[in-house]
Design brief:
alpha+beta; Aminopeptidase; 5 strands
C-alpha cells in the first residue's frame, strides 16, 4: 500500500472500471448472506451494468473509483432520478479499510447527489452486513424499513 490514493470521477462511461471491485463486493454478500447466498451467486456484473445503464437513461449516474497508484481499491456508484438519489454500491478492499477511503468516496457521491436536489437519498444494506450501519449513520443514513422476501 503506497497510501497515495487518487480518485477517478466519471459517469456511466467508466462503469466497466469497477467490474473487479463489484465482484469482490458480491463475494462479501455471498459470504455474509443468511438466506440468499444463491441469489448473490447468480448475479453477474453484466446484469448490474445493464441496470445501471437503464438508470443512466432515466436519470444520471455518478462513479468514483479510489486508486492506490494503478490499483483500483474502492468505488462508489450513485444514481439520481427525479426525487430519488441512490447510493447503488460502495466497496473498499479490506486492507484499505479504516483509512477513510470509504468516507471520501461516499462524501463525494453525496455531494454530487445533493447537487441534484433529490427529495430522498437511499441505499440498501444486505442482511448479514448490518455492521456497516454505524458507518452509514455517520453520513445521516438511518434504517427506515426491513424488506422481507421469499426465495422461489
Amino acid at each position: 500500500m503506497s497510501k497515495e490514493v487518487t480518485y477517478k470521477i466519471g459517469d456511466i462511461g467508466i462503469i466497466d472500471d469497477v467490474r473487479e471491485l463489484w465482484g469482490e463486493l458480491n463475494l462479501v454478500h455471498i459470504e455474509k448472506s443468511l438466506h440468499f447466498e444463491e441469489h448473490y451467486k447468480s448475479l453477474s456484473f453484466q446484469d448490474r451494468k445493464h441496470l445501471l445503464l437503464k438508470r443512466a437513461r432515466e436519470g444520471e449516474v455518478f462513479v468514483i473509483i479510489a486508486c492506490d497508484g494503478e490499483e483500483k481499491i474502492g468505488h462508489c456508484v450513485a444514481s439520481v432520478d427525479e426525487d430519488l438519489g441512490v447510493i447503488e454500491s460502495l466497496f473498499v478492499r479490506k486492507e484499505y479499510r479504516k483509512e477513510n477511503i470509504g468516507g471520501a468516496l461516499i462524501e463525494q457521491a453525496l455531494a454530487w447527489l445533493k447537487s441534484k436536489n433529490p427529495r430522498f437519498i437511499n441505499l440498501r444494506v444486505a442482511i448479514g452486513n448490518e455492521e456497516v450501519f454505524s458507518f452509514y449513520s455517520k453520513y445521516g443514513f438511518m434504517p427506515r424499513a426491513t424488506e422481507l422476501q421469499i426465495k422461489m
